[in-house]
Amino acid sequence: MAFIITQGSPNPLVLPPGGHASFTIEVKVDAGSVGAGETIRVKLPAGLFFPPTGQIRYISGGSVEVLPVESLEDGGRLVRFKAKAIGIQPQGFYSINVQALPNAAEGDRIQPDGLTIGATTTAPLSFRVGPPQPVEHKVYGTVDANGNVLSGDGFTVGPGLTGAYKIIFAKLFASRPTVLATLLKGGERGAVSVESVNTGLFVVQTTTNGAPAPLGFSFIAIGLAAPNP
C-alpha cells in the first residue's frame, strides 16, 4: 500500500505580494484504507507562509471541519496536521490558508517536497507571486422594448436612439467580451444585432423590416475580468 498526495487546482495558485488565498490537497491510497491520524506535513516555498489566523479545513460533501494545527515552524512555512481516514478514493479534500510576504518578489515558487505523508511519500507545491490572473466573467439579462430590465444584474441600460439599447457593464471586462443577443417571443419578424462592443459596454440594435424599432431581447456577454477582491 502506498499513499498518493497531490495539490489541487488551480496549480500554480497565484497570489499578489501580501495577498492571501487557500490551496487544496487530496490524499488517497492505492489499496485498502488507513484510519485517521496520519501526519501531513506542508512545507511552503520561500516568500509564503501560513498566516497566524489561518485555518486548515476538511471539506467533505456539504460539511466543513476545521482541523487543529499540530505544529507550526520556520516562521509559518512548515505546518503539520492530522489527516482524516484515507481510502482509495478521496472522500473529501483539505483547504489550507496561505499568504505571500508583502515584499515577495514576483515569480514562480515551487517546493519539491511541499507535501509529505508517511515515511517517504512527497509531492511538490506550486505557487506564483504576481498580479491576479483574469477569471471568466458572465453578464446576462433580459430587457423589454422600453429598456426596462426584466431579469439579470451586473448591467444597466443607457439611453439610445429608437431600437438602440446601450448595455453598460457594472464591472469592466479585461478584454473585449463575446456578446450574443436574441429577440424575445413576439419579435420573430424583427432582427437584432450587437454593435460597438468594448470592455465597458455594447449596443443592441433591433429592427423591423430593416427599420429601427423597439423590441425586447435577451443577451449574454462572456469574457475575462479581474477576480473579485
Continuous helix count: 0
**How many E strands?**
21
CATH topology of the largest domain: Immunoglobulin-like
The major pleated sheet works out as: 6 strands, antiparallel
Task: Give the low-pLDDT segments.
Answer: none
Strand content: over 45%
Structure characterization notes:
It contains no helices and 21 strands. The chain starts with a strand and ends with a strand. It is 0% helix and 55% strand. Strands 1, 3, 5, 6, 7 and 10 form a 6-stranded antiparallel beta sheet that branches. The mean pLDDT is 92. With 229 residues, it is an all-beta fold. It has 2 domains: 3-129, Sandwich (Immunoglobulin-like), CATH 2.60.40; 135-225, Immunoglobulin-like (Sandwich), CATH 2.60.40.
Question: In a nutshell, what does this entry contain?
Answer:
The protein is an all-beta fold. The protein has strands at 3-7, 13-15, 20-29, 39-43, 48-49, 56-60, 63-67, 71-73, 78-82, 93-100, 107-117, 121-129, 135-143, 149-152, 155-158, 164-169, 178-183, 190-195, 201-208, 211-212, 217-225.
Core attributes:
about 230 residues, Immunoglobulin-like, six-stranded antiparallel sheet, 21 strands, about 0% helix, about 55% strand
